[in-house]
Specification:
This protein folds into three domains: about 200 residues, Alpha-D-Glucose-1,6-Bisphosphate, subunit A, domain 3 (Alpha-D-Glucose-1,6-Bisphosphate, Chain A, domain 3, 3-Layer(aba) Sandwich); about 210 residues, 3-Layer(aba) Sandwich (Alpha-D-Glucose-1,6-Bisphosphate, Chain A, domain 3), CATH 3.40.120; about 110 residues, Alpha-D-phosphohexomutase, C-terminal domain (TATA-Binding Protein, 2-Layer Sandwich), CATH 3.30.310.50. Helices cover about 35% and strands about 20% of the residues. It is of the alpha/beta class and about 550 residues long. The chain is globular and about 70 Å long.
Length: about 550
């Protein structure tokens, strides 16, 4: 083991505020366990999707109290330089979340900040709402969202405008993340800690429920099966549906209460195969109208519907985006005047067609709600990974609770009129054209493998796919119009096939997004499009082998 590594570990142990992680590092030193020490000391966790995210463990490369302490101290230094003075902190129910919340509160109060702490684990949208409700300068959400059980994270929000960027309670974007990272890198000596912060009562939560439930236009007679995916969504969703006058959703009891082990799912993400199987089985048993599932911090919303002759199936994120976008554009037209629709570049192109059809301004952004939330006058925004903003004036971020309510309302109105969500979706395809989408998600042990695949694509991109010739290759590391550079590539084959390949922003994954679109009309051959999508997926799987 190198003397430099030993010295780095010893220095970290001396400053570690948690005796448990310090003891683990000491044990590895005594054992000469170079593998674990190198894994834990492979660099400080970097700000990715608006904050930190990584496995719980000791050392600067993992989530622990020492990393949270330094991150909080760095943010406090960033705040002081800009005259920002207040912070609100929320948390989910993962392992370490309560400890990391306390560590953050101690550091921020020690730095002289006004600190509020949400009273118990709540969804991320409640924290985003609280930033604006309390007029806080900064919001911190301790969560790893839909990541595996061994992970935790630390998401950063800013209120108002900072350095000329309008945040209004949304996630940080460059250059704020780089500037905060630079401040964190300067932190070395032990930080002063305070002990006096305000634990909020339920007033902010009640305000969130009131604001969200007011989106409902009718008291919907619709039977919803709901899963919180072992996360923190149940209390908030039930309160919101009740305040809106909806029937109480039927809970998937095995997944209704917070459990950081996520025992019934391989990964706590509704997109993952098998994650909502319990929900679909319950929906079949009770003949429900709709299945709704949130991810563990309830900022994402998944839906499943019954298709006659097929049975229950989960809607793709793009399908939910199309349903909500069309529903808002056609039934809430007055709320769209002077407003914008937007989606991320990896999402389906259908929302742009819906917006143009109804004369609504439309924008595309880089992947992530930190970008979508910066669109001025956003009325509806979504990303295909189950993130939806249906009321950006209340929560300037994706919100799985408000999206669930609006999806249930759409289902209720259709049921009242003798229709279904399956038929509604079919009518959308007839109007705007069918958009067949598919995603490939490849989990890797080392994120550098993703860069190798992207380099290979840049040097040797395919000349054709599924019989269609390559017509355009775009390297997204070069700015594209108003879009900042990002690591990824876009390939067009003909005019109807679009493929985007990029790394995940939150996990060690390679992501590929496929779309095949057609013109609208009553003679759509959906089966043929789906067959082409499946063929493209098969060919891309071969090209993307890690």
């Amino acid at each position: 083991m190198s003397p430099d590594l030993i010295a780095e570990v010893e220095e970290w142990i001396a400053l570690d505020p948690d005796p448990r992680t310090a003891s683990q590092l000491r044990e590895w030193l005594e054992q000469g366990n170079e593998i674990e020490l190198k894994r834990s000391f492979s660099g400080f966790l970097q700000f990715g999707t608006a904050g930190l995210r990584g496995p719980i463990g000791p050392g600067p490369s993992c989530m622990n109290r020492a990393v949270v302490q330094r991150a909080s101290a760095g943010i406090a230094a960033y705040m002081k330089k800009r005259g920002l003075t207040s912070v609100v902190i929320g948390r989910d129910a993962r392992y370490g979340s309560e400890d990391f919340t306390e560590e953050s509160a101690q550091i921020f109060t020690g730095a002289g900040m006004k600190v509020w702490v949400l009273p118990r684990p709540f969804p991320t949208p409640v924290l985003a709402f609280a930033v604006n409700a309390l007029k806080a300068d900064v919001g911190i959400m301790v969560t790893a969202s839909h990541n595996p059980p061994q992970d935790n994270g630390y998401k950063v929000y800013l209120g108002g405008s900072v350095d000329g960027v309008r945040y209004a309670g949304s996630q940080i974007v460059p250059p704020a993340d780089e500037e905060i990272a630079a401040e964190i890198a300067k932190i070395g000596s032990p930080q002063p800690k305070g002990a006096h912060w305000e634990i909020l009562n339920d007033d902010v939560f009640d305000q969130y429920v009131q604001a969200t439930s007011s989106l409902a236009r009718i008291h919907g007679d619709v039977q919803v099966v709901y899963s919180a995916m072992h996360g923190v969504g149940t209390e908030t969703l039930l309160a919101t549906f009740d305040a809106a006058g909806f029937n109480k959703p039927i809970l998937v009891e095995a997944q209704a209460q917070p459990d950081p082990d996520f025992p019934t799912v391989k990964f706590p993400n509704p997109e993952e195969p098998g994650a909502i199987d319990l929900s679909l089985a319950l929906a079949e048993e009770i003949s429900a109208d709709l299945v709704i599932a949130n991810d563990p911090d309830a900022d994402r919303c998944a839906g499943a519907i019954h298709v006659p002759g097929v049975g229950w199936r989960m809607l793709r994120g793009d399908e939910v985006g199309a349903i909500l976008g069309h529903y808002i554009a056609t039934t809430m037209k007055e709320s769209c005047f002077g407003k914008s629709f937007a989606n991320s570049i990896v999402s389906s192109s259908i929302l742009g067609k819906i917006a143009r059809f109804h004369g609504i301004e439309f924008h595309e952004t880089l992947t992530g709600f930190k970008w979508l939330a910066k669109i001025p006058n956003l009325r509806f925004g979504y990303e295909e990974a189950l993130g939806y903003a249906v009321d950006a004036t209340s929560v300037n971020d994706k919100d799985g609770i408000s999206a669930a309510l609006l999806l249930a309302q759409c289902a209720a109105e259709l049921k009242r009129d003798g229709h279904s969500l399956a038929g509604y979706l079919a009518s959308i395809w007839e109007t705007y054209g069918y958009h067949g989408t598919e995603q490939i998600s490849i989990r890797v042990s080392d994120i550098s493998l993703v860069d190798e695949v992207l380099t290979k694509l840049r040097l040797h991109h395919p000349e054709s796919i599924a019989g269609a010739a390559l017509t355009q290759f775009i390297d997204l590391t070069a700015p594209q119009g108003d879009l900042p550079p990002t690591n990824g590539v876009t390939m067009w084959f003909g005019e109807s096939i679009r493929i985007i390949v990029r790394p995940s922003g939150t996990e060690a994954k390679l992501k590929c997004y496929i779309e095949v679109s057609t013109a609208g009309g009553s003679t759509l051959d959906i089966a043929a499009v789906n067959e082409k999508v499946a063929q493209i997926k098969s060919e891309m799987m071969d090209l993307l082998k890690v």
